[in-house]
Design a protein that fits this description.
Structural class: alpha+beta
Shape: elongated
CATH superfamily: Outer membrane efflux proteins (OEP)
CATH class: Mainly Alpha
CATH topology: Outer membrane efflux proteins (OEP)
């Protein structure tokens, strides 16, 4: 499809910040991605959000389960009675009691059923949102990795350029001393060296910035990064195949579709509030000293209750209309997600092809600029070229090499960006050496729980 996979290899891969020695075992891109997959806080937060969404299912299912409550009370009553004969009596009691009430919903207008289906659709939507977050985090990690390589390589190139210009300043000064050159040659070389030193400072600052972003995304400072391969072997062979894959499997689209299902069931759940409800309620109670002449009273009752809603002030109707508008919004969001994915796939495909063409052009420029510099230097030695010609040829070679490094970086990032656009950038797809997170495990652990305050992991 795109030809051979290039390695992201700079002519000089050297990070000049801090002067740390490169470890013997270089860290690969996939090792860095594995660290980001395991430790990135944004991804871990998204996993926690998915686990919280799982609890919506047992919360919805609780609507059909019994409610059990117990109560107790105690008090004091003092009574004074005086007859017509003038005889007065006084009595004091301490009435109290205990009771147990069980209420079992029998029919709730299908609200429990629809609420459960809405919650299950929400769980599926949250899983796809988690998959999308995983894609974004891995893509950020690829970008951070490639940026460190690029910026380190550019810093290395600029450092070599400073060394080259130091030599040109020395050579120009020597020629001026023996009368073979002019002060202008020396000044031109020194001016170029000053500019190169400034550019090197900027390049080193860029290295520091890219290293900081790397730590933010991956969780550790970069140390001895290995060249990065592209992800072209995982991509569809044609643009049409890429579009088909993206439109059918991208997590943003799938999540939107599940959100439509959840919104549809939300409408039905609210409409259920307009239907009758049937509850069965049983009560057991014992009263102590209910009167001065009774010591205890035991009672038991069971009641079936039918409630028919007639008018609720228009609140339920407003919520139904609101839910229907939300459903319409979710359907529109599906179309928006499809268009976003389509645009991302087309842009990613074009970006990757462009990066490949840029690499070929930049490599040709490097080869030509290298030959030109060598020729200019030889011509300068026999007096056919000036110091300025050498400096210009060196600048062209430096720019060509930087362009090559940047194009290599673009190809790596573009390939993973396209992989994300088709919805296939994941730890499992990349074969990362990690324990792949399975959101289904937590869902199965909590779906049928009737009680318990501890989360499945013991918190």
């Amino acid at each position: 499809m795109f030809g051979a996979r290039y390695l992201f290899v700079a002519p000089v891969v050297a990070c000049l910040v801090g002067g740390a020695a490169t470890p013997v075992a270089a860290e690969t891109l996939y090792q860095a991605l594995a660290k980001a997959y395991s430790a990135n806080p944004d991804l871990n937060a998204a996993r926690a959000s998915t686990r919280a969404t799982d609890e919506n299912v047992p919360l919805a299912r609780s609507g059909s389960r019994p409610r059990v409550s117990a109560g107790a009370d105690i008090g004091a009553t003092s009574t004074r009675t005086e007859t017509t004969a003038g005889v007065a009596t006084r009595s004091t009691t301490t009435p109290g009691g205990v009771d147990l009430t069980i209420s079992q919903p029998l029919f709730r207008g299908f609200r429990t059923k629809n609420a459960t289906k809405a919650a299950e659709a929400g769980v599926l939507a949250s899983r796809e949102a988690l998959r999308n977050t995983e894609q974004n985090v891995l893509l950020d990690a690829v970008t951070a990795y490639a940026d460190v390589l690029r910026d380190g390589a550019i810093a290395g190139l600029r450092a070599r350029n400073v060394e080259f210009l130091n030599e040109q300043v020395r050579a120009a000064s020597d020629r001026f001393t023996v009368g073979e050159g002019t002060r202008t040659d020396v000044a031109q070389a020194e001016a170029r060296r000053s500019g190169a030193i400034s550019d090197l400072s900027v390049a080193r600052a860029s290295v520091n910035t890219s290293r900081a972003v790397y730590r933010q995304v991956i969780g550790e400072d970069p140390r001895g990064l290995a060249p990065a391969k592209t992800a072209e072997h995982l991509l569809p062979r044609t643009l049409d195949a890429a579009l088909s894959a993206g439109l059918s499997d991208h997590p943003a689209i799938v999540s939107s579709l599940h959100s439509v299902d959840a919104a549809a069931f939300d409408v039905k759940e609210i409409e259920g509030e307009l239907l009758p409800t049937i509850d069965l309620e049983g009560t057991l109670s014992r009263r102590y000293e209910p009167s001065a002449t009774v010591r205890t009273t035991d009672s038991a009752s069971i009641v079936g209750r039918l409630t028919v809603p007639i008018y609720q002030g228009g609140g339920v109707s407003a919520r139904v209309r609101q839910a229907k508008e939300t459903l319409g919004q979710r359907k529109i969001e599906v179309d928006a997600a499809r268009e976003q994915v389509r645009a991302a796939v087309v842009a990613g495909w074009g970006g990757l092809k462009s990066a490949i063409a840029q690499i070929e052009a930049a490599q040709a420029s490097v080869d030509a600029a290298q030959l030109a510099l060598e020729g200019v230097i030889e011509e300068q030695r026999v007096g056919q070229r000036t110091t300025l010609d050498v400096l210009d040829a060196q600048a062209e070679l430096l720019n060509a090499r930087i362009s090559l490094v940047s194009a290599q970086r673009e190809r790596v990032v573009a390939s993973f960006n396209l992989l994300a656009a088709v919805g296939k950038l994941s730890a499992a797809q990349l074969g990362l050496q990690v324990s792949v997170y399975q959101p289904e495990h937590h869902y199965k652990q909590v779906r049928d729980k009737w009680f318990g305050l501890r989360t499945p992991d013991g918190r």
